[in-house]
Task: structure prediction
Amino acid sequence: MMEQTFVNGDIVRVTAPFLGEPENVLGYVYDEYSLSGNDHGVSVITENGCDLGGFSEDEQEKYLEFVRKSKYHYQFKNVIQLDRDFDNQIKPLFACSCERTGNCGC
Ligand SMILES: [Zn+2]
Result:
């Protein structure tokens, strides 16, 4: 088990290129899920709105670095809704580091 598990609302740095996104792009953890063997998976969407999908604990350890907590807990329903919600609910979180939850009018 890894020491740091990421949770919904965390802003992370993605340290390798995925799906055409550059390395070191910022991402937002929009969902958490359980995998077999108590592995704690998280799903990440980048600051550009690219859904990278799930990262197992091994993948989190390899590819994700913690940046800060946004304190905004997204209620994930499905990827279509995620795409609709991104501009209003998630994208503003990357622009600030004030740790309000108002996503984010500062
Ligand atoms: Zn703010």
User: Anything to note?
Assistant: The longest strand covers residues 25-34.
